[in-house]
Write a structure and sequence with these properties.
Blueprint: H1 12-15, H2 17-36, H3 43-55, E1 58-59, H4 60-66, H5 71-83, E2 87-91, E3 99-103, H6 105-129, H7 131-144
Antiparallel strand pairs: 1-3, 2-3
Helix pairs in contact: 2-6, 3-6, 6-7
């Protein structure tokens, strides 16, 4: 029977999945943020606009589930987009408790302006990291979402 070693404080950094993921996410996130800055978007904002463009209007809850973010954080991310007129957030006609998010014409225009910048940084990452490795990384990270945790359950 193989024995699993418990990490000691000296090698905890090397064994922590969360730290490794967050370091990489901060590094890559800052890279995408810098690339999108000329059009006044952050990477998270671009992702929100892209999802709304691809899927149409949706509830905050549905959008939060789609991008794996809690509703409160998503609502905070939507405020500047709404202030700039890039999205609208309105009560649902079907359920007044739900709020519907919709990309506006200005939001679509901004997303389209950001798309070449996103494509360029995406291509640069894949050239440096390797396109096949990047595809495997995305697939592996996607399976993380199926590990059974429920981090935003109330």
């Amino acid at each position: 029977m193989e024995e699993t070693m418990t990490p000691t404080p000296a090698n905890l950094d090397d064994a922590c999945n969360n730290l490794a993921l967050r370091k990489a996410a901060r590094y890559l996130g800052a890279t995408y943020d810098k690339a999108l800055a000329p059009v006044g978007l952050r990477a998270t904002q671009f992702s929100i606009l892209q999802k709304l463009n691809a899927h149409g209007e949706m509830t905050i809850t549905s959008l939060a589930d789609m991008i794996a973010m809690d509703r409160t954080t998503l609502a905070s991310n939507l405020k500047p987009l709404a202030r700039e007129g890039l999205v609208t957030v309105e009560p649902s006609a079907a359920d007044r408790r739900a709020r519907i998010v919709t990309i506006t014409a200005d939001g679509l225009s901004r997303m389209k302006a950001a798309l070449p910048l996103w494509k360029a940084v995406q291509a640069r990452f894949e050239e440096s990291f390797g396109a096949d490795d990047a595809a495997r990384l995305r697939a592996s990270l996607g399976t993380v979402l199926d590990t059974g945790f429920d981090p935003w359950a109330e």
